[in-house]
């Protein structure tokens, strides 16, 4: 059993930043990541609003820089190691993983969030066969085809803008009559001739056959009428669900499952801190995740010094 000062669960921008700050503070730290480092940042084509990179930087390259900096500080990064349970043990935390166990004096939760689902018939059936949550990952397969994007925030507009360069037609389906996305993104969207917003509509069913998605059944939120939209792909971008299930009962959460913290990243349980998209907050961006990670690491080192 490995014993360290800090265990960080999750290696997205928040977890990697926390690891960098802990490494610089010379506290024994290990970072566990269930998949590969990067989180949802890997799904971004070009990140345009991260300071210091005029013209933008790809999510893959940015994460690679974070990762290199972490490893240069000698902080172990255990990728493809799933944390299965966390248990308080006297003044320590016992972390059970798919690889073994570890004990730590402090814990930073940076497990992020996953794309929310529509919860409509056909969605689960056609994942990977026309239903996608990442245009950067899957857009190539829909060259010269008709596709739809569902959502009205930054992510949905960014997905539509990415797809417009390869798909024949892109339909942006939104339940309201206006978008929530940043104004600069909206301006780009409305200047794109092959992107067509469908206001006041929701997807009620995803239809297809053994070859994949063929159409969407849409419900008009104003009139209640139903129509069919023929598309071969649908990209869902309606928000996020926190990856926090294993921490239920351990720390306080909001009704959606996001972990509640104070301004210093402290959760309801002393010694446990949260950072990034898993934390209850208003804005979820790479830049805010980085800030969260730095604050959580600072708070964890302060906790270690006082305990």
CATH class identity of the largest domain:
Alpha Beta
Low-confidence stretches: none
DSSP strand count:
19
Largest sheet composition = 7 strands, mixed
Average predicted confidence as pLDDT: 94
Total domains: 2
Key terms:
307 residues, FAD/NAD(P)-binding domain, 2 domains, seven-stranded mixed beta sheet, five-stranded parallel beta sheet
What does this structure look like?
This protein has 307 residues and is an alpha/beta fold. It folds into two domains: 2-114 and 240-306, FAD/NAD(P)-binding domain, CATH 3.50.50; 117-236, FAD/NAD(P)-binding domain, CATH 3.50.50. 22% of the residues lie in helices and 31% in strands. It contains six helices and 19 strands. The protein has helices spanning 13-24, 59-72, 135-138, 154-163, 183-190, 286-306; strands spanning 2-9, 29-33, 46-47, 57-58, 77-79, 83-89, 92-97, 101-109, 113-115, 131-132, 146-150, 169-173, 195-198, 201-209, 212-220, 226-230, 233-236, 240-242, 272-274. The strands form five sheets. Strands 1, 2, 5, 6, 7, 8 and 19 form a seven-stranded mixed β-sheet that branches. A five-stranded parallel β-sheet has the order 10-17-11-12-13, with helices on one face. The chain has a three-stranded antiparallel β-sheet with strand order 14-15-16, with no helix packed on it. A hairpin with a 3-residue loop joins strand 7 (92-97) and strand 8 (101-109). Helix 1 (13-24) packs parallel to helix 2, helix 1 (13-24) runs parallel beside helix 6 (286-306) and helix 4 (154-163) packs parallel to helix 5. It is elongated, with a radius of gyration of 21 Å.
């Amino acid at each position: 059993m490995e014993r360290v000062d800090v265990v960080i669960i999750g290696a997205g921008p928040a977890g990697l930043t926390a690891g960098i700050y802990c490494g610089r503070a010379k506290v024994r730290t290990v970072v566990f990541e269930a998949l590969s480092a990067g989180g949802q940042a890997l799904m971004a084509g070009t990140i345009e609003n991260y300071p210091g990179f005029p013209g933008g930087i790809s999510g893959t390259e940015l994460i690679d820089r974070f990762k290199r900096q972490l490893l240069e500080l000698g902080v172990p990064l255990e990728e493809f190691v799933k944390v299965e349970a966390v248990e308080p043990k006297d003044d320590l935390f016992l972390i059970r993983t798919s690889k073994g166990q570890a004990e730590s004096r402090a814990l930073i939760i940076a497990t992020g969030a996953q794309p929310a689902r529509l919860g409509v018939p056909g969605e689960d059936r056609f994942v990977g066969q026309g239903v996608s949550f990442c245009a950067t990952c899957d857009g190539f397969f829909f060259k010269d085809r008709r596709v739809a994007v569902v959502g009205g925030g930054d992510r949905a507009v960014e997905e539509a803008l990415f797809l417009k360069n390869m798909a024949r037609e892109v339909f942006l389906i939104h339940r309201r009559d206006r978008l929530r996305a940043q104004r600069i993104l909206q301006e780009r969207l409305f200047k794109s001739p092959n992107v067509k917003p469908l206001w006041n509509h929701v997807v009620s069913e995803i239809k297809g056959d053994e070859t994949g998605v063929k159409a969407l059944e849409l419900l008009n939120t104003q009139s209640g009428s139903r129509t069919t939209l023929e598309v071969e792909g649908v990209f869902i971008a309606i928000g996020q669900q926190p990856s926090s299930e294993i921490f239920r009962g351990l720390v306080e959460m909001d009704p959606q499952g996001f972990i509640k913290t104070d301004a210093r990243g402290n959760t309801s349980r002393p010694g446990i801190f949260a950072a990034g998209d898993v934390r209850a907050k208003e804005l979820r961006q790479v830049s805010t995740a980085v800030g969260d990670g730095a604050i959580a690491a600072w708070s964890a080192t302060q906790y270690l010094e006082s305990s």
